[in-house]
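[recover] target loaded
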Protein backbone atom coordinates (compact mmCIF):
# COMPACT_ATOMS: atom_id res chain seq x y z
CA UNK A 1 0.00 0.00 0.00
CA UNK A 2 2.79 2.31 0.94
CA UNK A 3 4.56 1.57 -2.34
CA UNK A 4 1.40 2.46 -4.27
CA UNK A 5 1.23 5.84 -2.54
CA UNK A 6 4.86 6.55 -3.41
CA UNK A 7 4.17 5.67 -7.06
CA UNK A 8 1.16 7.99 -7.14
CA UNK A 9 3.19 10.84 -5.64
CA UNK A 10 6.00 10.30 -8.15
CA UNK A 11 3.50 10.15 -11.00
CA UNK A 12 1.82 13.38 -9.94
CA UNK A 13 5.22 15.08 -9.56
CA UNK A 14 6.24 13.96 -13.04
CA UNK A 15 2.97 15.21 -14.50
CA UNK A 16 3.46 18.57 -12.81
CA UNK A 17 7.03 18.85 -14.10
CA UNK A 18 5.90 17.83 -17.57
CA UNK A 19 3.02 20.28 -17.58
CA UNK A 20 5.24 23.11 -16.30
CA UNK A 21 7.86 22.32 -18.92
CA UNK A 22 5.37 22.16 -21.74
CA UNK A 23 3.69 25.33 -20.50
CA UNK A 24 6.99 27.21 -20.50
CA UNK A 25 8.05 26.03 -23.94
CA UNK A 26 7.65 28.68 -26.67
CA UNK A 27 4.90 28.04 -29.21
CA UNK A 28 4.53 29.23 -32.80
CA UNK A 29 1.34 30.98 -33.82
CA UNK A 30 0.03 32.97 -36.75
CA UNK A 31 -1.85 36.18 -36.07
CA UNK A 32 -3.30 39.05 -38.05
CA UNK A 33 -3.74 42.73 -37.15
CA UNK A 34 -5.52 45.58 -38.87
CA UNK A 35 -6.03 49.32 -38.63
CA UNK A 36 -7.77 52.04 -40.61
CA UNK A 37 -5.46 52.97 -43.48
CA UNK A 38 -6.17 56.69 -43.29
CA UNK A 39 -4.55 56.98 -39.85
CA UNK A 40 -1.01 58.45 -39.84
CA UNK A 41 0.23 55.54 -37.72
CA UNK A 42 -1.93 52.83 -39.31
CA UNK A 43 1.03 50.51 -39.92
CA UNK A 44 2.23 50.74 -36.31
CA UNK A 45 -1.27 50.06 -34.99
CA UNK A 46 -1.83 47.10 -37.33
CA UNK A 47 1.49 45.47 -36.32
CA UNK A 48 0.69 46.12 -32.65
CA UNK A 49 -2.70 44.45 -33.12
CA UNK A 50 -1.00 41.42 -34.70
CA UNK A 51 1.51 41.16 -31.82
CA UNK A 52 -1.30 41.47 -29.25
CA UNK A 53 -3.24 38.68 -30.97
CA UNK A 54 -0.10 36.49 -31.09
CA UNK A 55 0.43 36.89 -27.32
CA UNK A 56 -3.23 36.06 -26.73
CA UNK A 57 -2.93 32.84 -28.76
CA UNK A 58 0.52 31.76 -27.59
CA UNK A 59 0.60 32.77 -23.92
CA UNK A 60 -3.09 33.17 -23.14
CA UNK A 61 -2.46 36.70 -21.89
CA UNK A 62 -4.54 39.73 -22.84
CA UNK A 63 -1.93 42.47 -23.13
CA UNK A 64 -4.64 45.05 -23.77
CA UNK A 65 -6.32 44.25 -20.44
CA UNK A 66 -3.00 44.09 -18.59
CA UNK A 67 -2.04 47.60 -19.68
CA UNK A 68 -5.41 49.10 -18.71
CA UNK A 69 -5.34 51.12 -21.92
CA UNK A 70 -8.55 53.11 -22.36
CA UNK A 71 -7.98 54.49 -25.85
CA UNK A 72 -6.17 51.99 -28.10
CA UNK A 73 -5.58 54.45 -30.95
CA UNK A 74 -3.79 56.86 -28.62
CA UNK A 75 -1.99 54.36 -26.38
CA UNK A 76 -1.16 51.47 -28.72
CA UNK A 77 2.54 52.08 -28.00
CA UNK A 78 2.24 50.60 -24.49
CA UNK A 79 0.76 47.37 -25.88
CA UNK A 80 3.47 47.31 -28.56
CA UNK A 81 6.34 47.54 -26.05
CA UNK A 82 4.93 45.03 -23.55
CA UNK A 83 4.22 42.48 -26.30
CA UNK A 84 7.98 42.05 -26.67
CA UNK A 85 8.03 40.65 -23.15
CA UNK A 86 6.32 37.56 -24.63
CA UNK A 87 7.20 37.57 -28.36
CA UNK A 88 10.70 36.19 -28.81
CA UNK A 89 10.78 36.46 -32.59
CA UNK A 90 8.42 36.95 -35.48
CA UNK A 91 8.31 37.22 -39.25
CA UNK A 92 5.93 39.24 -41.39
CA UNK A 93 4.06 36.95 -43.77
CA UNK A 94 1.93 39.57 -45.46
CA UNK A 95 1.25 43.29 -45.18
CA UNK A 96 -0.27 46.10 -47.18
CA UNK A 97 -3.11 48.53 -47.67
CA UNK A 98 -6.20 46.76 -48.98
CA UNK A 99 -8.88 48.02 -51.33
CA UNK A 100 -11.11 48.56 -48.27
CA UNK A 101 -8.60 51.16 -47.03
CA UNK A 102 -7.71 48.86 -44.12
CA UNK A 103 -4.07 48.13 -43.45
CA UNK A 104 -3.47 44.40 -42.80
CA UNK A 105 -0.47 42.67 -41.21
CA UNK A 106 -0.09 38.92 -40.85
CA UNK A 107 2.79 37.49 -38.78
CA UNK A 108 4.19 34.17 -37.59
CA UNK A 109 5.47 34.58 -34.03
CA UNK A 110 7.28 32.54 -31.40
CA UNK A 111 5.63 33.28 -28.04
CA UNK A 112 6.08 32.22 -24.43
CA UNK A 113 4.92 33.51 -21.05
CA UNK A 114 7.99 35.75 -20.83
CA UNK A 115 8.15 38.79 -18.58
CA UNK A 116 4.81 40.57 -18.79
CA UNK A 117 5.56 43.45 -16.43
CA UNK A 118 8.78 44.96 -17.74
CA UNK A 119 9.52 48.56 -16.85
CA UNK A 120 9.88 51.23 -19.54
CA UNK A 121 13.64 51.24 -20.13
CA UNK A 122 14.00 47.47 -19.80
CA UNK A 123 11.13 46.74 -22.20
CA UNK A 124 12.61 49.05 -24.82
CA UNK A 125 16.08 47.61 -24.27
CA UNK A 126 14.71 44.17 -25.13
CA UNK A 127 13.47 45.61 -28.43
CA UNK A 128 16.95 47.01 -29.11
CA UNK A 129 18.50 43.59 -28.44
CA UNK A 130 15.99 41.92 -30.73
CA UNK A 131 15.74 44.43 -33.60
CA UNK A 132 18.65 46.87 -33.23
CA UNK A 133 18.70 50.59 -32.54
CA UNK A 134 17.95 53.57 -34.78
CA UNK A 135 20.21 56.62 -34.90
CA UNK A 136 18.65 59.32 -32.74
CA UNK A 137 19.52 63.01 -32.49
CA UNK A 138 18.33 65.39 -29.76
CA UNK A 139 17.11 68.95 -30.26
CA UNK A 140 16.54 70.70 -26.94
CA UNK A 141 14.88 74.12 -26.63
CA UNK A 142 14.86 74.92 -22.91
CA UNK A 143 14.30 78.18 -21.05
CA UNK A 144 13.37 78.57 -17.36
CA UNK A 145 12.95 82.18 -16.28
CA UNK A 146 14.96 83.00 -13.17
CA UNK A 147 17.67 80.44 -13.94
CA UNK A 148 20.78 80.67 -16.16
CA UNK A 149 19.80 80.47 -19.86
CA UNK A 150 22.23 77.65 -20.63
CA UNK A 151 20.47 75.02 -18.50
CA UNK A 152 20.04 71.64 -20.19
CA UNK A 153 18.07 69.61 -17.66
CA UNK A 154 15.83 68.00 -20.30
CA UNK A 155 18.82 67.13 -22.48
CA UNK A 156 20.61 65.38 -19.62
CA UNK A 157 17.51 63.28 -18.89
CA UNK A 158 17.11 62.21 -22.54
CA UNK A 159 20.82 61.33 -22.77
CA UNK A 160 20.63 59.18 -19.64
CA UNK A 161 17.44 57.47 -20.85
CA UNK A 162 19.05 56.78 -24.24
CA UNK A 163 22.03 55.15 -22.52
CA UNK A 164 19.69 52.96 -20.45
CA UNK A 165 17.96 51.79 -23.63
CA UNK A 166 21.32 51.45 -25.46
CA UNK A 167 20.25 53.78 -28.25
CA UNK A 168 22.64 55.18 -30.86
CA UNK A 169 22.80 58.89 -30.08
CA UNK A 170 24.04 61.26 -32.80
CA UNK A 171 25.47 64.66 -31.89
CA UNK A 172 24.40 66.83 -34.84
CA UNK A 173 26.63 69.68 -33.68
CA UNK A 174 29.70 67.45 -33.77
CA UNK A 175 28.68 66.07 -37.17
CA UNK A 176 28.30 69.62 -38.53
CA UNK A 177 31.70 70.61 -37.11
CA UNK A 178 33.34 67.61 -38.78
CA UNK A 179 31.62 68.44 -42.09
CA UNK A 180 32.88 72.04 -41.93
CA UNK A 181 36.39 70.79 -41.21
CA UNK A 182 36.28 68.55 -44.30
CA UNK A 183 34.88 71.45 -46.35
CA UNK A 184 37.79 73.66 -45.26
CA UNK A 185 40.18 70.94 -46.37
CA UNK A 186 38.46 70.76 -49.77
CA UNK A 187 38.76 74.55 -50.16
CA UNK A 188 42.45 74.40 -49.25
CA UNK A 189 43.05 71.97 -52.10
CA UNK A 190 41.01 74.07 -54.52
CA UNK A 191 37.80 72.00 -54.71
CA UNK A 192 35.29 74.70 -53.82
CA UNK A 193 32.29 72.92 -55.33
CA UNK A 194 32.70 69.84 -53.11
CA UNK A 195 33.24 72.13 -50.12
CA UNK A 196 29.95 73.90 -50.80
CA UNK A 197 28.12 70.57 -51.19
CA UNK A 198 29.46 69.44 -47.82
CA UNK A 199 28.18 72.59 -46.16
CA UNK A 200 24.73 72.09 -47.70
CA UNK A 201 24.58 68.84 -45.67
CA UNK A 202 22.51 66.66 -47.99
CA UNK A 203 23.31 63.42 -46.17
CA UNK A 204 21.03 61.89 -43.55
CA UNK A 205 22.78 61.75 -40.18
CA UNK A 206 19.93 60.40 -38.01
CA UNK A 207 16.86 58.20 -38.42
CA UNK A 208 14.83 60.22 -35.90
CA UNK A 209 15.04 63.57 -34.17
CA UNK A 210 13.62 64.00 -30.68
CA UNK A 211 12.63 67.63 -30.22
CA UNK A 212 11.80 68.92 -26.75
CA UNK A 213 10.54 72.43 -26.07
CA UNK A 214 10.55 73.23 -22.34
CA UNK A 215 9.40 76.49 -20.78
CA UNK A 216 9.26 77.34 -17.09
CA UNK A 217 9.46 80.00 -14.41
CA UNK A 218 11.12 80.06 -11.02
CA UNK A 219 8.65 81.54 -8.50
CA UNK A 220 11.10 81.76 -5.59
CA UNK A 221 11.56 80.00 -2.29
CA UNK A 222 9.14 79.82 0.60
CA UNK A 223 8.75 78.07 3.92
CA UNK A 224 5.37 77.31 5.48
CA UNK A 225 4.75 76.55 9.14
CA UNK A 226 8.43 76.16 9.91
CA UNK A 227 8.93 73.44 7.29
CA UNK A 228 12.06 73.09 5.21
CA UNK A 229 12.22 75.84 2.53
CA UNK A 230 10.96 74.71 -0.87
CA UNK A 231 11.67 76.10 -4.35
CA UNK A 232 8.54 76.67 -6.45
CA UNK A 233 8.36 76.34 -10.24
CA UNK A 234 5.89 76.25 -13.11
CA UNK A 235 6.77 74.03 -16.08
CA UNK A 236 5.29 73.19 -19.49
CA UNK A 237 6.75 70.99 -22.25
CA UNK A 238 6.03 69.71 -25.76
CA UNK A 239 7.84 66.61 -26.99
CA UNK A 240 7.97 65.37 -30.59
CA UNK A 241 9.62 62.69 -32.71
CA UNK A 242 10.37 63.96 -36.23
CA UNK A 243 11.51 62.40 -39.49
CA UNK A 244 14.69 64.38 -40.34
CA UNK A 245 14.07 64.53 -44.11
CA UNK A 246 10.34 65.09 -44.44
CA UNK A 247 9.69 66.85 -41.14
CA UNK A 248 6.74 64.55 -40.46
CA UNK A 249 5.74 64.43 -36.78
CA UNK A 250 5.73 60.70 -35.94
CA UNK A 251 4.69 61.14 -32.32
CA UNK A 252 3.97 63.97 -29.91
CA UNK A 253 3.43 64.24 -26.15
CA UNK A 254 2.11 67.58 -24.83
CA UNK A 255 2.56 68.32 -21.12
CA UNK A 256 0.22 70.93 -19.68
CA UNK A 257 1.66 73.57 -17.40
CA UNK A 258 1.44 73.44 -13.62
CA UNK A 259 2.28 76.38 -11.41
CA UNK A 260 2.74 74.73 -8.03
CA UNK A 261 5.67 72.33 -8.48
CA UNK A 262 7.96 72.25 -5.45
CA UNK A 263 11.32 70.79 -4.48
CA UNK A 264 13.22 71.04 -1.20
CA UNK A 265 16.67 70.55 -2.74
CA UNK A 266 19.31 73.06 -1.77
CA UNK A 267 19.67 75.35 -4.81
CA UNK A 268 17.19 76.53 -7.48
CA UNK A 269 19.25 74.75 -10.16
CA UNK A 270 19.21 71.44 -8.30
CA UNK A 271 15.49 71.80 -7.63
CA UNK A 272 14.73 72.59 -11.30
CA UNK A 273 16.77 69.62 -12.48
CA UNK A 274 14.93 67.34 -10.02
CA UNK A 275 11.49 68.53 -11.18
CA UNK A 276 12.30 68.37 -14.91
CA UNK A 277 13.60 64.81 -14.57
CA UNK A 278 10.50 63.76 -12.60
CA UNK A 279 8.29 65.40 -15.23
CA UNK A 280 9.94 63.53 -18.10
CA UNK A 281 9.85 60.27 -16.12
CA UNK A 282 6.10 60.64 -15.61
CA UNK A 283 6.33 61.04 -11.83
CA UNK A 284 4.55 64.39 -11.42
CA UNK A 285 0.92 63.49 -11.94
CA UNK A 286 -1.45 62.90 -14.83
CA UNK A 287 -0.81 66.26 -16.50
CA UNK A 288 2.80 65.13 -17.04
CA UNK A 289 2.57 61.71 -18.79
CA UNK A 290 6.33 61.54 -19.31
CA UNK A 291 8.53 60.88 -22.33
CA UNK A 292 8.39 57.07 -22.37
CA UNK A 293 5.39 57.07 -24.70
CA UNK A 294 7.47 59.12 -27.13
CA UNK A 295 10.24 56.51 -27.09
CA UNK A 296 7.78 53.64 -27.50
CA UNK A 297 6.14 55.22 -30.56
CA UNK A 298 9.55 55.94 -32.03
CA UNK A 299 10.50 52.27 -31.65
CA UNK A 300 7.20 51.22 -33.22
CA UNK A 301 7.94 53.40 -36.25
CA UNK A 302 11.50 52.02 -36.42
CA UNK A 303 10.48 48.36 -36.35
CA UNK A 304 7.64 48.92 -38.81
CA UNK A 305 10.14 50.48 -41.20
CA UNK A 306 12.37 47.40 -40.98
CA UNK A 307 9.64 44.74 -41.08
CA UNK A 308 6.92 46.21 -43.27
CA UNK A 309 9.10 48.42 -45.44
CA UNK A 310 10.00 52.08 -45.28
CA UNK A 311 7.63 54.89 -46.19
CA UNK A 312 9.62 57.04 -48.56
CA UNK A 313 8.60 60.39 -49.95
CA UNK A 314 8.76 60.87 -53.71
CA UNK A 315 9.05 64.39 -55.08
CA UNK A 316 8.09 65.27 -58.67
CA UNK A 317 8.81 68.61 -60.31
CA UNK A 318 6.20 70.28 -62.57
CA UNK A 319 3.96 67.41 -63.58
CA UNK A 320 0.33 67.66 -64.73
CA UNK A 321 -2.66 66.26 -62.86
CA UNK A 322 -3.00 63.52 -65.48
CA UNK A 323 0.63 62.56 -64.95
CA UNK A 324 0.16 62.65 -61.16
CA UNK A 325 -2.75 60.18 -61.37
CA UNK A 326 -0.81 58.04 -63.82
CA UNK A 327 2.18 57.91 -61.46
CA UNK A 328 -0.05 57.02 -58.52
CA UNK A 329 -1.68 54.16 -60.42
CA UNK A 330 1.62 52.88 -61.83
CA UNK A 331 3.16 52.83 -58.35
CA UNK A 332 0.17 50.92 -56.96
CA UNK A 333 0.64 48.25 -59.64
CA UNK A 334 4.40 47.95 -59.09
CA UNK A 335 5.64 44.76 -57.36
CA UNK A 336 7.42 45.57 -54.12
CA UNK A 337 5.30 48.66 -53.39
CA UNK A 338 2.59 47.80 -50.84
CA UNK A 339 1.10 51.21 -50.10
CA UNK A 340 0.64 54.52 -51.95
CA UNK A 341 -0.46 57.76 -50.27
CA UNK A 342 -0.76 60.89 -52.49
CA UNK A 343 0.18 63.89 -50.32
CA UNK A 344 0.29 67.08 -52.38
CA UNK A 345 -0.05 68.18 -56.00
CA UNK A 346 1.15 71.40 -57.67
CA UNK A 347 1.38 71.56 -61.47
CA UNK A 348 3.66 74.60 -61.34
CA UNK A 349 5.80 73.41 -58.47
CA UNK A 350 6.45 70.21 -56.56
CA UNK A 351 4.14 67.25 -56.04
CA UNK A 352 4.57 64.55 -53.40
CA UNK A 353 3.58 60.90 -53.02
CA UNK A 354 4.48 58.67 -50.07
CA UNK A 355 4.97 54.98 -50.82
CA UNK A 356 5.55 51.95 -48.64
CA UNK A 357 8.09 49.55 -50.03
CA UNK A 358 10.47 46.86 -48.86
CA UNK A 359 12.76 47.83 -51.72
CA UNK A 360 15.82 49.80 -50.76
CA UNK A 361 16.20 53.36 -52.04
CA UNK A 362 18.09 52.27 -55.17
CA UNK A 363 15.53 49.57 -56.00
CA UNK A 364 12.62 51.97 -55.49
CA UNK A 365 14.28 54.57 -57.71
CA UNK A 366 14.61 52.06 -60.54
CA UNK A 367 11.01 50.87 -60.02
CA UNK A 368 9.64 54.42 -60.31
CA UNK A 369 11.60 55.19 -63.49
CA UNK A 370 10.56 51.86 -65.00
CA UNK A 371 6.90 52.31 -64.02
CA UNK A 372 6.81 55.62 -65.90
CA UNK A 373 8.43 54.18 -69.02
CA UNK A 374 11.47 56.46 -68.79
CA UNK A 375 9.37 59.66 -68.75
CA UNK A 376 10.94 60.56 -65.38
CA UNK A 377 14.60 60.80 -64.44
CA UNK A 378 16.08 60.46 -60.96
CA UNK A 379 17.57 63.75 -59.74
CA UNK A 380 18.89 63.13 -56.22
CA UNK A 381 17.84 61.57 -52.94
CA UNK A 382 18.59 60.07 -49.56
CA UNK A 383 17.35 56.88 -47.96
CA UNK A 384 13.87 58.28 -47.29
CA UNK A 385 13.49 61.10 -49.83
CA UNK A 386 13.78 60.64 -53.61
CA UNK A 387 13.51 63.49 -56.11
CA UNK A 388 12.50 63.01 -59.76
CA UNK A 389 12.31 65.37 -62.71
CA UNK A 390 11.00 65.09 -66.22
CA UNK A 391 13.33 63.23 -68.56
CA UNK A 392 12.26 65.57 -71.41
CA UNK A 393 10.74 69.06 -71.53
CA UNK A 394 7.93 70.15 -69.24
CA UNK A 395 4.35 70.87 -70.31
CA UNK A 396 4.22 73.60 -72.98
CA UNK A 397 7.96 73.50 -73.66
CA UNK A 398 9.39 72.81 -77.08
CA UNK A 399 11.85 70.01 -77.51
CA UNK A 400 14.80 72.23 -78.32
CA UNK A 401 18.47 71.37 -78.14
CA UNK A 402 18.77 73.23 -74.84
CA UNK A 403 15.94 71.15 -73.30
CA UNK A 404 17.15 67.73 -74.42
CA UNK A 405 18.77 65.61 -71.71
CA UNK A 406 22.36 65.35 -72.80
CA UNK A 407 24.10 62.05 -72.05
CA UNK A 408 27.07 62.03 -69.76
CA UNK A 409 30.49 61.86 -71.34
CA UNK A 410 32.14 58.48 -71.17
CA UNK A 411 35.56 57.08 -72.01
CA UNK A 412 34.69 56.27 -75.62
CA UNK A 413 33.73 59.88 -76.38
CA UNK A 414 30.36 58.89 -77.90
CA UNK A 415 28.43 61.31 -75.67
CA UNK A 416 30.77 64.13 -76.63
CA UNK A 417 30.21 63.41 -80.33
CA UNK A 418 26.43 63.41 -79.98
CA UNK A 419 26.47 66.79 -78.24
CA UNK A 420 28.79 68.25 -80.89
CA UNK A 421 26.64 66.95 -83.74
CA UNK A 422 23.49 68.35 -82.11
CA UNK A 423 25.09 71.78 -81.86
CA UNK A 424 26.28 71.62 -85.48
CA UNK A 425 22.74 70.78 -86.62
CA UNK A 426 21.38 73.75 -84.68
CA UNK A 427 23.87 76.08 -86.38
CA UNK A 428 23.23 74.68 -89.88
CA UNK A 429 20.20 76.94 -90.45
CA UNK A 430 22.42 80.02 -90.15
CA UNK A 431 24.72 78.70 -92.87
CA UNK A 432 28.06 76.91 -92.67
CA UNK A 433 30.67 78.84 -90.76
CA UNK A 434 34.17 78.04 -89.63
CA UNK A 435 33.00 78.25 -86.00
CA UNK A 436 30.21 75.74 -86.60
CA UNK A 437 32.61 73.27 -88.23
CA UNK A 438 35.14 73.63 -85.45
CA UNK A 439 32.46 73.43 -82.72
CA UNK A 440 31.12 70.22 -84.24
CA UNK A 441 34.58 68.69 -84.05
CA UNK A 442 34.97 68.42 -87.86
CA UNK A 443 38.10 69.05 -90.01
CA UNK A 444 37.77 71.90 -92.53
CA UNK A 445 37.65 70.87 -96.22
CA UNK A 446 40.85 71.20 -98.32
CA UNK A 447 39.40 73.99 -100.52
CA UNK A 448 38.79 76.12 -97.43
CA UNK A 449 42.40 75.70 -96.42
CA UNK A 450 43.41 76.67 -100.02
CA UNK A 451 41.40 79.91 -99.86
CA UNK A 452 42.89 80.75 -96.49
CA UNK A 453 46.42 80.14 -97.82
CA UNK A 454 45.80 82.19 -100.98
CA UNK A 455 44.37 85.07 -98.99
CA UNK A 456 47.38 85.01 -96.70
CA UNK A 457 49.78 85.04 -99.67
CA UNK A 458 48.02 88.02 -101.32
CA UNK A 459 48.01 89.94 -98.07
CA UNK A 460 51.70 89.27 -97.56
CA UNK A 461 52.54 90.33 -101.15
CA UNK A 462 50.57 93.57 -100.74
CA UNK A 463 52.40 94.48 -97.60
CA UNK A 464 55.74 93.79 -99.32
CA UNK A 465 54.84 95.91 -102.34
CA UNK A 466 53.82 98.85 -100.20
CA UNK A 467 57.05 98.58 -98.29
CA UNK A 468 59.15 98.67 -101.48
CA UNK A 469 57.50 101.82 -102.79
CA UNK A 470 57.91 103.65 -99.52
CA UNK A 471 55.59 106.24 -97.95
CA UNK A 472 56.66 109.06 -100.28
CA UNK A 473 55.87 107.09 -103.44
CA UNK A 474 52.27 106.43 -102.69
CA UNK A 475 49.98 108.41 -105.03
Amino acid sequence: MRMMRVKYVLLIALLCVFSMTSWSEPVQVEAEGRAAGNLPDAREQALTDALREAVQQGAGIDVLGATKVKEYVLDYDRIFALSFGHVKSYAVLQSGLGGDNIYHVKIRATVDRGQPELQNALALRMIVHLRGSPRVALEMDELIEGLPPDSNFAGSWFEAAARDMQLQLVDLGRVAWHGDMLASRDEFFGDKQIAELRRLKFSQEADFIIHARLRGRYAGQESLYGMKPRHRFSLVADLKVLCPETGNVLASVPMAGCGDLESDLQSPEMAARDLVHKMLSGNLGSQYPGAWSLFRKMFAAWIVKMDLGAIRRLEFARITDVEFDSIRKALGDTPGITGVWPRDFDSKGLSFIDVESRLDAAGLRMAVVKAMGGALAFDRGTDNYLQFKRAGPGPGQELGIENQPLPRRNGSGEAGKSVAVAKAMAAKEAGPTVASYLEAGNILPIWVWGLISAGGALMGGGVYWLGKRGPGKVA
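[recover] notes: The two ends are 159 Å apart (CA to CA).
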